[in-house]
Amino acid sequence: MTVSSSPANLLTSVAFLNRFREATHAAYEAQQDSRVLWRLAELDRALGNLPVAAAEYQQYAVLHPEEKKAQVLGALMAGTAAGLVEDADGVIPFVLVKDLAPEIILKEIRRTLERKREQFAVAKIGHRELERVDLDTRAAVFFRGDEELHGMTQGLLRETIRAQGVLERLGLESISETREEVEAIAYASGGKYAVHRDNAPKVDNGRVLTVVWFIHDEPKGFSGGDLLLHDEPPAGQGFTRIVPVRNSAVFFPSNCLHEVTPVESTVSDVLCSRMVLNGWFLKP
Ligand SMILES: O=C(O)CCC(=O)C(=O)O
Ligand SMILES: [Fe+2]
């Protein structure tokens, strides 16, 4: 894992973005200017209003059929993009899956993690000998998956990757059929993970495909903790916000920039706050 500096002027606050969106929406109503429509779509993507953003990009694509990026983003936000990732111009492709596991299995996973509560440790950053705790960058506790957790998750995740055509939709070639990593990560109040990549060309750890599977309780005992997928610089400073929804999962290429925004939690037990299963599928 490498931590890179945050892209400049990154405004990720939901309150700020909402105000900006309101003003932009009013401007669009008044002028019907397609450049304003584009900005509106970008704001809805940054706010995590993905179906709304999809409709706006699609509307823009009708007005500007020559701009491939609008079509691709419309499809990507709507969850229908296929074979078009090279036209995304820096926007990170992702596949969002709802209701990944039957509820009974999710409950079983949570019970299993509860039993392993004592094995959660403070999460680190950095690779191998450079591994260290740095709470300004990453504040979370994690459980490194054992055979039991692998057994409960591997089949479901691999079946989802196959059934949803995840590799094709992300423009990835192939993954090892046997090897993957899986961890459970929990974030108390103040928990976060600054902008980073799960794999970078310089220190290749073999990770190709990342999955973040949200396994917190509903109703949510926390706010924040959104997963932001940052556009690859220099194309833009935009990002796609994925708001945690229990039992949904997001797949994305491991070399992409992403972060977890600060969590505000109302529950004192960290395992009842924002919890995810984080998986990495390795190259063959
Ligand atoms: O908790 C998440 O949503 C993602 C965590 C993450 O990015 C990581 O552990 O590499
Ligand atoms: Fe990550």
Automatic annotation (TrEMBL):
Q: What Gene3D superfamilies does the database record attribute to this sequence? A: q2cbj1_9rhob like domain
Q: InterPro entries under this entry?
A: HIF_prolyl_hydroxylases, Oxoglu/Fe-dep_dioxygenase_dom, Pro_4_hyd_alph, Pro_4_hyd_alph_FE2OG_OXY
Transmembrane region(s): none
Pfam families assigned: 2OG-FeII_Oxy_3 (PF13640)
Query: Is-annotated flag, keyword Transcription regulation?
Result: no
KW Signal (keyword) present: no
Could you list this entry's UniProt keywords, alphabetically sorted. Answer: Dioxygenase, Iron, Metal-binding, Oxidoreductase, Vitamin C
Q: Which domain of life is it from?
A: Bacteria
**Stretches assigned to the Fe2OG dioxygenase domain:** 178-283
Alphabetized SMART domains for the sequence? P4Hc
What is this protein called in UniProt? Fe2OG dioxygenase domain-containing protein
- Native species: Granulicella arctica
